[in-house]
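To assess whether the prediction recovers the assembly geometry, we first specified each molecular entity separately, as shown.
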Amino acid sequence: MRIFSNGSSFASGKYPEYLAKMLNADLTNIAMPGYSNRSIWRTTLESKPVDYDLAVIQLTSKSRTEYFDGFWIEVSPQLCHPRLDDKKRLWEYWYENLYSDEYGDCDENFAIEGLRGYFACNNIPCIIVTTDKFTKSKKFDLNIFDINFPMDKTRHPTTIGHKVIANKIYEIANTRR
Amino acid sequence: MRLLTLGDSWTFGDELEDRSNQRFSTLISRRMNAEVDNPSTCGLSNHAIARIFLETDISAYDLVIIQMSQISRTEWYDKKGVSKTYKSKLQNKPNMPKMLVDWDKIMPTKDIFMSTGHILDGKEWWIRYYEELYHDKYGESDEMLFFHLMKNKLTSMSIPHLMLTINKKTKMPFDLQLNKSKYPRAKGDHPTSLGHIMIASDIMKLL
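The predicted structure of the complete assembly is given in tokenized form:
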């Protein structure tokens, strides 16, 4: 069995590995901390995953985005990316005056529909979870913050937290097999 | 039989004298004896086309024709209704659907679509966006993402479809390139009535 995983900081932690062990599967995990929903959607399509038995995608806060300046740079309202430099002021203005939840909802829906469509056309069962606590979308298989798991000081899952998340996704995966 | 066509001014039929009768969507629907819905409007970006596509119940259609646009266009949600273009839209078309009014079109090639009134350090924010943040690589990736989003959804729902474009430089496998010199153009660069006849004919060959 082969599993494809993508997402942001949560998915770049240990839960995909724990899940792969539980399913006795080989894992490809291209998740990166700081990824936006657009980055997760884009890098998934760019890596063209085929011949997988399961895809587990973790989407993130809908307000994050990315732009290209020789390389892709992640942007979030915290504006903490070290490469933002002189662009920080422009992005501050974006979040203060132009960005809205409606825009974020729309981009989140694009990522969900784009990812589901890709995996449907490639006959790969797909589980999409989110770490956006406040999402209004009913299209996710799981909101990770709906389950109780221990977090560290950075508000990311501890080792046990990752095991709890893997267990929950394992339950969902079993309903898809 | 029901047909959906969705795109920008090219599919809307801009610059035609008798738009509702001369645009290619109508010509195709007549040849196929089909009812046609065409929610296309001028200035739509690929972001807008994909958004309207997802807001539409596409399961109601037997054939869907999507015309994608120039990659540099975009849109934003004008929640507070402060945009200058928003205000002019309301003045001109008070009955325009909310889904078109709230979303403000941004087109770097036309000043009217670049004046939202959001001024940062004396300059419209969207002008600064194109000068300092936008890169064609971003536009190309938008095109790639939205192309696959719409095509994969239609494929997974087994709905026959065609993907068209006006982006001359596209790298995506569209079924038909509309931005060709063989289709006669009006002053504003949109196809003439003959152009629409020729486009309809080329689309029929693909069906």
